[in-house]
Design a protein that fits this description.
alpha/beta, Urease, subunit C, domain 1, 9-stranded mixed beta sheet, 5-stranded parallel beta sheet, 18 helices, 20 strands, 38% helix, globular, MTA/SAH_deaminase, Metal_Hydrolase
């Protein structure tokens, strides 16, 4: 069925209008936007939607998410990333999550995302200890059934966990080291697995794609990183990785490679336009210049970065260097919601304390771009979604402008970034299909899913609590590693983001 939106306020985010709204009609046929303009003719058989006092805008893009954390929402606080990972991604594990819960976890992630206005998500999926095509298919099944657009990876690590952080081998007692097995996958095996995923899942339903993900340059061998990049470039997909997220990782590059992790990536050929870097907090001026020259992207996870005490990313300098910046929630354990509107507000406000130079603060328009078209570009989907343009896929939101958040209506971009929290969403369309209307998810029976989760989750979480206790024995040594790295970091990278963390002259570029 065609969808005809009449007399709407339209925020297209395209090159012509940007964040300047205009009035008009919009026609969706099949999965695409086929017309935008004033007084368009109504096609026979179209569903006509009165969009007076309503805003049409692109669906939001979540540029970085880990669905494997969704069941740990609200579970942890007061831990830096390296300690938090000990519990959310346990070193010692039992059996992987059941297939049914794996499917439901992915489905729940998509359900919450859609109701929050996210029509495209990037799921950096992690499923230790192995790589099972049938299990990954369940993730694709869930996103297919929910109706969301998704780029899904299967994150790879081929280094032993104790070799991914500085000082840990010397700190960790040998008896604890002996309990932990290392990963066994080789670059050839990972590439063969990815080929199978591309052959069976990539392009599914016209909105699901596969991407390559090497977890981080300190967690993967050079051969694994390069093999993944070769495949990403051959397939024309994003190469997703985590870089310089924490103070520990700022020390890791010089300690392991004698240079920053970004320079190491540059030298081994994996800093490219396909590269999307999650976090990018502890980057130097030299790192930023290399990233800009490479034309790579960053997924900015403002809330997660604060919750884990990681730091404030230098977004203004990254933007100035020409780096594409999208917004991500990160996993729902290090963020606790799938709401990109929350990330937008914090991202806009956070950088106002990063520098006293008010002209360098992030603007609402820049934040909106990061949440839409720039987010799509970080996933290499900029030609598909992220703006309302004829020929693009119909991924859009209809927002009610008659409520508290828009009364009175001053500057629309400011209202969307500083006032909106998703409660004004009246309709979500993904790939031309109405998936949410008046607060109701139309593709999935929410009550049925919640009831099943209510039955299955207590036993699963009890089992996870057992794993938490088992892994707690490692925590003192990881905390000491974090303390040493933090002290060492002061000498390696005194300045983080745009704000000096320790006394000294402000050495910002420009």
């Amino acid at each position: 069925m065609s969808l005809f939106f009449r007399n709407a306020t339209i925020l297209s985010m395209d090159k012509v209008h940007g964040v300047t709204p205009f009035s008009g009609d919009l026609l969706v046929e099949g999965d695409r936007i086929v017309a935008i303009g004033a007084n368009l003719p109504v096609p026979a058989g179209a569903r006509v939607i009165d969009a007076g006092r309503k805003l049409l805008m692109p669906g939001l893009v979540n540029a970085h998410l880990h669905s494997c954390e969704t069941f740990f929402k609200g579970r942890y606080h007061g831990m830096p990333l390296e300690v938090w990972m000990l519990y959310s991604y346990p070193i010692l594990m039992k059996e992987p999550i059941s297939e049914r819960l794996l499917y439901l976890r992915s489905l729940l992630t998509a359900m919450e995302s859609l109701k929050a206005g996210v029509t495209t998500l990037v799921d950096d999926f992690f499923d230790p200890p192995g790589f099972d095509l049938n299990r990954l298919k369940l993730v694709f099944d869930a996103y297919d059934h929910a109706g969301i657009r998704a780029n899904v990876s299967h994150c790879v690590i081929d280094k032993h966990v104790f070799d991914t952080m500085p000082y840990l081998r010397e700190l960790m007692p040998q008896d604890l080291q002996d309990e932990v097995e290392g990963p066994s996958i080789t670059p050839d095996e990972y590439i063969a697995y990815c080929q199978a995923v591309f052959a069976t899942q990539h392009g599914r339903a016209g909105r699901l794609g596969f991407m390559i993900s090497a977890s981080a340059p300190q967690r993967c061998s050079t051969e694994m990183m390069q093999a993944g990049m070769g495949m990403a470039q051959a397939k024309g997909v994003a190469y997703h990785t985590h870089v310089l997220e924490t103070k520990t990782q700022a020390v890791t590059g010089p300690k392991f490679y004698g240079r920053s992790l970004i320079r190491y990536m540059h030298e081994i050929g994996i800093l490219t336009p396909n590269t999307t870097i999650a976090h990018s907090i502890w980057v130097s001026e030299d790192d930023i210049a290399l990233m800009g020259e490479a034309g790579c992207s960053v997924a900015h996870n403002a809330i997660s970065n604060l919750k884990l005490g990681s730091g404030i990313a230098p977004i203004r300098r990254l933007l100035d260097a020409g780096v594409h910046v999208g917004l991500g929630t990160d996993g729902l354990s290090s963020n606790d919601t799938a709401r990109i509107f929350d990330v937008m507000r914090l991202a806009a406000l956070l950088h106002e304390i990063a520098t006293p130079d008010t002209e360098r603060w992030m603007t609402a328009a820049e934040v909106l771009r990061s949440a839409t078209i720039e987010g799509a570009r970080t996933a290499m989907l900029g030609q598909v979604t992220g703006s309302l343009e004829v020929g693009k896929r119909a991924d859009l939101l209809m927002i009610d402008l008659s409520g508290y958040d828009y009364m009175p209506l001053n500057r629309l971009d400011h209202h969307l970034v500083y006032c909106e929290n998703g409660s004004s969403i009246r309709m979500v369309i993904a790939n031309g299909e109405v998936v949410v209307e008046d607060g109701k998810l139309l593709t999935i029976d929410e009550a049925e899913i919640f009831a099943e989760l209510g039955e299955l989750l207590p036993a699963y979480l009890a089992e996870h609590a057992y794993l938490e206790n088992l892994n707690a024995r490692f925590e003192p040594y990881i905390r000491e590693m974090y303390r040493r790295a933090t002290v060492q970091n002061i000498g390696i990278n005194r300045y983080q983001g745009d704000m000096p963390l320790w006394p000294g002259p402000d050495r910002r570029a420009g």
